[in-house]
Amino acid sequence: MYKTVIGLEVHVHLKTKTKAFCGCSTEFGKEPNTQVCPVCLGLPGSLPVLNKVALDYAVKVAIALSCQVQEYTKFDRKNYFYPDLPKNYQISQYDLPVAKDGFLDIDLDKKTKHIGIKRVHLEEDAGKLIHKQDVSLIDFNRTGIPLLEIVSEPDINSPQEAYEYLTAIKSIIEYLDVSDCDMEKGSLRCDANISLKKQRDKELGTKIELKNMNSFKAVKEALDFEIERQTELLSRGETVIQETKLWDAQESKTISMRTKEGAEDYRYFPEPDLPPFIIKQDKIEEIRKTIPELPQEKMQRFMKGYGLSRYDAKILVSFKKDADFSEDCIKKYPGEDKKPVVNWLIGPLASLTSASTGISDVKIPGGINEFIILVKATEDGKISNLVAKSTLSESINSGKLASEIIQEKNLFQISDSGSLDDIAGEAIKENPKSVSDYKAGRISALMFLVGQAMKKSQGKANPKAMQEILRRRLNDA
What pLDDT is attached to residue 9? Predict the structure, then answer.
């Protein structure tokens, strides 16, 4: 009945050594209020000077998002009064941003969706409020850190699309190496604008802005909640009030923060202490040459060059260092069929990672070469898949080479029919009920017997061969 319309504002801390308009350090985690100066605190008589690297990084991101980089750009004062904003205004950009009119294509169920990028602009961040019982403390270390804002067009129509868009944006920025994108440090933040309208209506519905979402999962959950809330209101004939709402992760609901300001409330005017900036075409081309192969391009190359499925390629290219590690593994894996090593990369190896680590962070004794030996031994039937997985874990925990563990413990797969037949006979003898169940037509009983036989062989029996031997013996009995 109602169509969901979502626009996202992604805020990215740029990985510069100094702040946007002064020489203070941007290093994270220092003592509160130790990385400040008269400029970022807005003391009388201080003057801002633009960080050249921050502008170059902004142009780099804009090019990667197929934006039109503006030849003429300027900064403006955005006036508002919060405790964490020492100057009572923020140096931002209003009508002449660094870039505009770009796009990003996202993958959705084997199809691609085109999401417009309205603008990319550069600004300074505010400080950080820390609330403790009866008091609120302010840390101004973050004040003035260069912040890039990427504003999408309202082309997103579901929480899942929003999630895919954010994932793609983060991946591109990591590939460009202009931010660490660490959401726990606040290096990557997102605000969402959401409204609902009837399918036939041309006008957008009343917009709600969502803040305080510290993960992509939280963005998705907040949008899901707000869709349900607005749908109920509209279905009852009630009005949605334009406001800014916070996401309360503990209560899993949005709560009102303030009525939404418009551009007129901020009283924008050109920043008098900074001149307009001219970004020449030769400078744009110079920056364009520094842009690496981006995730979508790499995904297409992996599919075409290595015969990977779209699903596998998309997983492997999500993070640049993991993509580089994966490609090294794929190149070193012998033969034309790369599926075995890809399966290990996105399966057993990925299972050893955490939320903050990737497959390239897993410390495998012997490195890639030893990993390839293990995968190839499994594929050739020298060791079972079960043994290979346990050996990989033991190798990482002990620091021993996987190949040494296999040799020392004689973990080579049992494939000769005589030995397998003996093990199968023992499994049949010890599990008469499962035998009866199989004869009664319960096929799952066969897999239970295979499991019992694998246990007896300590995981070394060839499971396919064992299954065939058990089936033959049971059918002949």
Answer: 96
